Amino acid sequence: MRNILLTLEYDGSRYQGWQRLGKGESTNTVSNKILEVLKKMTNEDVELFCGARTEVGVHAYGQVVNFKTTTDMTLLEIKHYMNRYLPMDIAVLSVEEKPERFHASLNAKSRIYLYRVAIAEVPSVFDRKYTYHSFKKPDTELMKQAALLLAGKHDFKKFSTVKKNKSTEKEILNIDIYEDLEEIQITLEATDFLHNMPRMILSTLLDIGLGIRRKEEIDQILSPTSSTVASAPCDPKGLYLQEVVYDR
Q1: What is the CA radius of gyration of the chain?
Q2: Closest CA to 132 of 82, 231, 180, 202
């Protein structure tokens, strides 16, 4: 068996996330579209593992997946075949062969998400599907101060919609906030993310930047004894899985 790694980019606009199981199960997912092509290519029922399960409407610049197969196709043939038969909003950027024990999720060291907030006076008609437009400019200095309170290991249960009783402690490695005249870009890097955790962190930071919330509320949300909750998840159309990080 060969262990094949794919690096993908996709426009998540029309999909029900990477995978949708249980209540609200859907076949209109990014993973299902890839599995359909892999089945056609290999004539095998392969199992697909991903670096990060992106949610409904979220895009990816650098999703990483792996699967095992007995196909004798070259890596270039796999790449060309998949890009020929996948929908045009999903692309295979590269194909690699990995050791048998490599696992796209279990071997990942961190995940990096990028959120694009448009702040130009007039919303771009061309970027409207891929950025969140804020008519009032957020205070990025306040957001940076609040972001410092999120760094490190914390229980992020209240920054998530997760319902299972599994560990909700995660470690945020870095939050970077960049601003120019037209856009604010917020980059989140963590060892892993809970369900909706990136979107709830982002919406809370934006609410602080807009003066809707105080930065001191971050500590209250992180405290298990406080009733203070995070903001509702932000609009997913400006959110991208930028990279899944592995040992170099």
Answers
A1: 19
A2: 202
